[in-house]
Amino acid sequence: MLLRKKPMFGANIQPACTYCEFGQKAADPRMILCAKKGVVSPYYHCKKFSYDPLRRVPRRQPKLPEFSAEDFSLD
Q: Which superkingdom is the protein from (predicted)?
């Protein structure tokens, strides 16, 4: 019986050089330095794409509303 691990961040991640193990940020923030293809767009991907979950920047959590003690009283 084979146990499969659930893919990190879901199974439907769009390939992009931003998340690739071969890509690095360039001096120009709009470009990526790829070890395989050279300077490319962050949304470009090639057949050598290999997902690296540590390069993914998580979204910020929404700010929680402020509550007072009156909000929780039963009067």
A: Bacteria
Q: What mean pLDDT is predicted for residues 2-13? A: 65
Q: What percent of the chain has pLDDT over 70?
A: 84
In one-letter notation, the amino acid at residue 50 is S
CA–CA distance from 32 to each of 23, 27, 35, 44, 58 (Å)?
Answer: 6, 9, 10, 9, 19
For 7, the token pair is: 């893919």
Give me the mean pLDDT over the 16-40 stretch. Answer: 89
What is the C-alpha to C-alpha distance for residues 41 and 45, in angstroms, rounded to an integer? 9
Per-residue confidence (pLDDT) for residue 49, from 0 to 100: 86
Cα–Cα dist 9/16, whole Å: 14
